[in-house]
Amino acid sequence: MKIVKLIFYNFAVLFFLFLFCEIGFNFFAADYIFYERTYRGQFENCNAKNEIDTNWVRLDTELGWVCKSKENLNFYRPELHKIRYRINKQGFRNPVSFDTLNLSSSKKRVLLLGDSFLFSILQEEQNTVSSIIQKRLGDEYEILNIAVPGWGLDQMYLAYQKYVEIIEPEQVILLFIDDDISRLVEAMYWGAGPKPAYKLKKGILIDRQFKEGKLNPVEAFFIFKCQILNRIYKYFCEQKAKPLAKAFIKKLSDAEREKGRTLAAVHCPRYFQLEGKYESRHFYIETIFEEESIPFYNLRESMVKLSDDEQKALFHLQDGHPSDRGAKFIANFLLKNVLQ
Fold it and tell me: pTM to 2 decimals?
């Protein structure tokens, strides 16, 4: 009987300690963003297209989604940003369709892979990263931007695999943010739709099946409503993301090496990572690029040399994407350090 009481008292102490810590987290970290890893089966019994399709999304069975081929795309606060987007036939922000490229020309083609930062969301055409580079390099070059908002490293690789033989670039540059790594353990992107999802089995990338990873309602409630459990959950999801990132980077590097080219990778920080919070949501995958002998560049090292006001001017602070000045900074960095 004493043992039962002791066990009960210990559980009671642990429960109240857990509750106290949870209240503390919610008070001191009220702005904590809960991480919800998604799974393929989440959309098994619903019409995902009707529920999550948006003004700009065109669902793609191979890549998850690309952009609709129209100028009036609404990203985030459309009433604040009346931007015209030129989207080509394939769903990318390029002035020409890939199937009309003149591969026999002497132009040097550069393929850029990325997400909304490289897409230059909220930027007018002349202020995009790729347009600035194109204008600076002139007609001897052809800069091709394969970047879509919300993409992860997996989708960038799949797009590379789909279009590299069509484009036949002489140089490939990967521009990524840390979110592109965490997206590797997700099977959809809110506001965009379901995406290809993978797992590693004996070091080999395989498709993640529909019901895999599904949480029951009780597990989902505690994990997505309790900060302590969500932080633990987030940690283990991040541990899954890094091996996946390594696998996709290796596949991309191997494919480029076969063609006799060298992939270049550039990491772009979010604004909060310039404020001394670099540890937050940073995956430290630099060693992966070193192991693969991939030239790696970190934009943060250049950005932190600027004054606080200059750093702020690089981003739209209401949503965190690069501003006109930020896009120009990224383009100038690529021109100076990466483009051969």
Answer: 0.88
Question: Would you say 158 and 205 are in contact if contact means Cβ atoms under 8 Å apart?
Answer: no
State both tokens at 121: 């969301």
* pLDDT averaged over every residue in the chain: 86
C-alpha to C-alpha distance for 213 and 187, rounded to whole angstroms? 10
CA–CA dist 323, 58 (Å, integer): 25
- Mean local confidence (pLDDT), 51-75: 79
| Amino acid 208: pLDDT | 85
Q: What is the CATH number of domain 32-44+97-338?
A: 3.40.50.1110
Q: Which residue has the higher pLDDT, 50 or 68?
A: 68
What's the DSSP call for residue 92? S
Q: Is 320 exposed, middle or buried (0-12, 13-18, 19+ CB in 10 A)?
A: middle
Task: Give the residue among 186, 179, 188, 193 at the shortest CA–CA distance from 54.
Answer: 193
- Give the span between the Cα atoms of 273 and 276, in whole angstroms: 6
Is residue 155 scored above 50 in pLDDT?
yes
Say how many C-beta atoms besides its own lie within 10 A of residue 248's C-beta. Answer: 24
What is the tens place of the pLDDT at every residue in 223-240?
888 998 888 888 888 889
Q: Which residues of 96-129 are buried (b: 16+ CB within 10 A; e: fewer)?
A: eebeebeeeeebebbbbbbbbbbbbbbbeeebbb
- CA torsion angle 7 8 12 13 (round to 10): -30
Residue 227, both tokens: 């900060």
Residues whose CB is less than 8 angstroms from the CB of residue 68 and which lie 6 or more positions away in sequence, other chains included: 55, 56, 57, 58, 87, 91
Nearest CA to 96 out of 135, 142, 64 is that of 142
47 — alpha (psi -120 to 50), left (phi > 0) or beta?
beta
